[in-house]
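Review form for a predicted model. The reviewer records the input and the model, then writes brief findings.
Reviewer: anonymous (R2)
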Amino acid sequence: MSTRKFLTSLHTILASFFLPMGIMYAITGGLYGLDIKGNYQVTEHTLNLDGPLPSDLAGLVTIAQRELASRTIDIPTGSAGVRKVGTSFAFEWSGTRRDIEIAPTSEPTIAKLKIKETDPHRFFVQLHKAKGAAAFKWFAAVWMVGLVLLFITGGVLAMAAKPFRKLAIPSAVLGVVSFVVLAWIS
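Model under review:
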């Protein structure tokens, strides 16, 4: 098999295999840049605790798991964290299908639980933001390699064919200049 035929075949396979992923990333990224991020359906609950709400991640994860299990709701697929809010804190755990938040109230043994269920668009935005399960995060890493290979094989094929070379060189130069200028002024 010739090098050109191999590159063309590889380019075709990569483009076809990663088409759904490319469309998802392009649409969610483009709309996110326009501040269209999807929506949540939010429910709030009061938690009556045996003692003060812990401020450590492990303690908050335990409470979140218990509360979600009592409501037969799956835990979020992403990561959990504690962030400082003024002189207090809030626990956040995000995922593709839902985000949850737990925050203390003025009463030491009462906390607020907020469960935010994603709409279909927000689900894909959350995938884009790496809030999915580990399997999808690995697939996204493979997609990254595939996308780079797709650009490389496309560039090599364009440069190897004289009619396309005349289009590829000025387009590549314009792309580099546009990227540098727009990144600089941002």
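Findings: The chain has two domains: 3-35+128-185, 40-118.
Further findings: The chain has six helices and five strands.
Recommendation: see findings above.
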